[in-house]
Amino acid sequence: MDLDHAFFCGNPALDFAATLRARRTLRFETLVSPDRLDAWYVESGVVDTVSPSRDTDVEQAIAVREAVYDLITARRLGEAYDEETLAAVNGAARRPSATPQLTATGRWTDATPEEALATVARHAVEVLGGPDVPLLKECGNPECTRVYIDRSRGVRRQWCGMESCGNKVKAAAYRARKKQAQTAAAR
Q1: C-alpha span between 54 and 60 (Å, rounded)
Q2: Cβ contact 14:76 at 8 Å
Q3: What is the largest CA-CA distance in the chain?
Q4: CB-based burial label for 121 (10 Å; 0-12, 13-18, 19+)
Q5: 169 pLDDT band (50/70/90 cuts)?
Q6: Contact 148, 9 (CB under 8 A)
Q7: 161, HSE (Cβ side, Cα atoms, 13 Å)
Q8: Confidence label for 162 from pLDDT (cuts 50, 70 and 90)
Q9: Which residues does the UniProt record annotate as the domain Zinc finger CGNR (predicted)?
Q10: Which of 186, 164, 183 is nearest to 21 (CA)?
Q11: How sure is the predictor about 121, in pLDDT bands with cuts at 50, 70 and 90?
Q12: How many whole angstroms separate alpha carbon 105 and alpha carbon 160?
């Protein structure tokens, strides 16, 4: 897998939770360094610039990310929240968050790593306490563990992204059908 960040989920907190990919199999970490964490904050649009993170910022971000994922999973499955996990996300959300400023050229958000993480935690609070909860779905690709907001017509979306997972699953199913047909024809 590559370290490129992906944003398919419809909310920065959901995308942040997806920075650990393939949770049930490979467990591929994308936040492998302070630079990768900073890149995620900027690429996600949470901030425009962030002061350089340190290893401790990565550790904190991963702890909050895991708490966010656990809360998302509990909410999606209709289970009670774990109090310690809830305290981790609420604690991060209580910290000062990134504050956008108006400049001569438009909106600009500069932040510290702690402020950027607080902003992500607040996005988690909003999505988990807001009207989109019934729209939370896990990707239909068995290897993918992204949770996304399904705003499709009829709420029928199956994949976090067609390019990332839908095409892979459909291609694998096609190959399996073709192989089965060839095996049946050979008998």
Answers
A1: 10
A2: no
A3: 74
A4: buried
A5: low
A6: yes
A7: 10
A8: low
A9: 136-178
A10: 164
A11: very high
A12: 34
